[in-house]
Specification:
Blueprint (H helix, E strand, L loop, with lengths): L1 H30 L4 H8 L5 H6 L5 E4 L1 E2 L8 E2 L1 H13 L3 E2 L2 H10 L7 E7 L3 H13 L5 E4 L12 H9 L3 E4 L13 H19 L5 E3 L7 H7 L5 E3 L17 E2 L5 H13 L5
Parallel strand pairs: 1-5, 1-10, 2-3, 4-5, 5-6, 6-7, 8-9
């Protein structure tokens, strides 16, 4: 009699233990904390276009050639480049990268005082040999927009140099395959050739996502901004009115000519500190 009762009690206790364990496991599964990425994506709301357009613009400089012996609006000498970057550093500017600009525009994250972004178009070899070391000497990092048809060609960066820029903390972005204006793309195959495939190729070289784009010649239209919105966080023009629907895809830059350092800073302040007329 007593043995029979004891057996029943043991069976009931075992059942309670199993149920308790199952409930505990189920509780852990359903209430496990979200990863930072999941939590962020579920709770962060991107600002509206009007909110983005109302924010103070950040100065974005655009360099092309850095060499001696040329006289045009797209060339500075190595000495002029060094002087301009030194002046920015001495004047208290902080070089920011596109990730920071995106978070500021889309999510109201704070930027350092006197932010400036320094960008380079066309994959020129002097960007790796001259520009990057000058930036790094001053504690700056830049943004290098790559035209992927130029890989390993004379006067242009090699794949190894591009990978090294990314490894050193610079941002590598896309400048299309062969510099064809986006306004000339007529079908999906054009976007694949000029943007989608080159983007994947660059990601293979750097081992990092390519999320930023510079328009060839700075020229764009609404249809292009809409298409790039599907693939990029930010796209960069030259000085022009921003798109009222896709301002993140029409971030303004100014070419940095062969001006005196203080002349460049004054022009930069005048260009970006005034409110854009919409």
């Amino acid at each position: 009699m007593h043995k029979s009762i004891l057996s029943v009690i043991l069976i009931l206790l075992a059942g309670c233990f199993i149920v308790s364990c199952n409930r505990s496991a189920g509780s852990n599964s359903s209430s496990a904390p979200l990863s930072p990425q999941s939590h962020q994506s579920q709770n962060k709301t991107i600002n509206s276009a009007s909110e983005i357009l109302a924010k103070q613009e950040v100065p974005v400089l655009c360099y092309h050639r850095i060499e001696d012996g040329r006289k045009d609006d797209y060339t500075v000498s190595p000495a002029q480049f060094e002087a301009q970057i030194s002046a920015l550093a001495d004047s208290g500017y902080h070089a920011i990268l596109p990730d920071q600009l995106y978070e500021y525009l889309a999510h109201n994250e704070k930027l350092p005082s006197k932010p400036v972004m320094i960008t380079f178009d066309d994959s020129r070899v002097e960007h790796a040999l001259i520009a990057a070391p000058v930036l790094e000497k001053h504690g700056f990092r830049g943004v290098f927009f790559i035209m992927t048809i130029t890989y390993n060609k004379k006067n242009y960066m090699s794949k190894e140099q591009i990978a090294q820029l990314a490894k050193a903390g610079h941002t590598v972005g896309l400048h299309t395959w062969d510099h064809t204006m986006v306004t000339k793309y007529k079908e999906a195959a054009d976007w694949k050739k000029e943007v989608t495939d080159p983007k994947k190729g660059l990601e293979g070289i750097t081992g990092k996502p390519v999320e930023y784009f510079a328009y060839p010649y700075g020229i764009w239209n609404h249809q292009a901004a809409e298409e790039l919105h599907k693939q990029m966080k930010l796209s960069f023009t030259l000085i022009s009115k921003r798109d009222s629907v896709y301002p993140l895809q029409t971030v303004r830059r100014m070419v940095a000519p062969a001006w005196t350092p203080q002349g460049l800073i004054k022009a930069m302040q005048k260009t970006f500190e005034k409110k854009e007329k919409m």
